[in-house]
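ok so I'm stuck.
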Amino acid sequence: MTAADPQAPARIPLYAPEFAADPHAAYERMRTTHGTLVPVELSPGIPATLVIGYDAARRILNDPLRFPADPRVWQREVPRTCPVLPMMEWRPNALRSGGTEHARYRGANTASLDAVDQHQLRALVEEIAAQAITGFGDTGRADLLMQYAWPISFRVLSALLGCPDDIGARIADGMAKIFEAKDADHGNALLAQAIGELVGLRRERPGDDVTSRLIAHEAALDDEEMAHQLVTLYGAGIEPLTNLIANTQLKILTDDDFSAELHAGQSTLRDALDTVLYSDPPMANYCISYPPYPTDMDGYLLPAHQPVVISLSACNNDPELTLGMPASSVSGNRAHLAWSIGPHTCPARSHAYLIAETALSHLLDAIPEMDLAVPPSELRWRPGPFHRALEALPVLFPVHR
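replied:
not stuck anymore, here's the structure
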């Protein structure tokens, strides 16, 4: 039976709340029923193949000729109202291009990001983290997602990109709608308008920021290209980073052994981040490719131009990979796929590590005693085919006056 076989079992809806509530149980059922390649729906009527095997994912991610990232043929048949289209459609940026265009866009992005001063970035995160904690530190309770992780990600990224708060707030609102695949078309319009304003502002008044450096780069990006580079940077920089910080703090709060090793100095915050990136990455299913012709993959025939989605979460937890591996060996193990691999690997990995590590370190130093305000079973995860994102992370802590 192939992935394209009309007699195959019904596709699994990745957008369903039931999937968001317990994706790892869903991945286990997928392995039993389908093996490595799984027929899924990203939204109603949008079929795709989900890759849940680590080895298969590595081969796909390192083979841009058979598995290019350009979706233009696919999206011809997709209605503009499709809720996942803004996350998947073609944009003139590195994420959705190949060959010389990919090299041009990626070169501009990498050069602009590499010029960020890491010491200044750490100081900026510490300053914003301190301000966030001041806002709730005397109350004995907080939602660490919306009162800590999100404002740090939002304000740090806005500062790096030279984006005023009013424009940045509209960009963040648009990105959230796109990630949730709710009102995504409206979110895409909000995003386009706000980012266009940012590009216009920095062309007129350049500064020491990533946007200005992109504008000045020898790639000579036009306004449309500039806008789509910034869409990618915001898409990678707010939602996934917010969720990485929150998911790691949740792990610290709910895994006693994990927390004890961290507080005893037997592991580091970098190890903690990698454990979460291994077991529950904030971008759970992404790295999408579109085979230009029917493609055989381990005996399965992948349809031409139909999305092939890498389940970073399922691949990292592939039993073929973890067989015989003690649970403790995941700590500090950086063989995970959370940053992707191959030509589309994340160019801002070091920046994301630094921001998340600094934010968590500052929080643990400022509030060393902290507990969840609700049982873990009462936490809710936001539906959506791509992310692993909490609705809230409520905590309680003592107030020392």
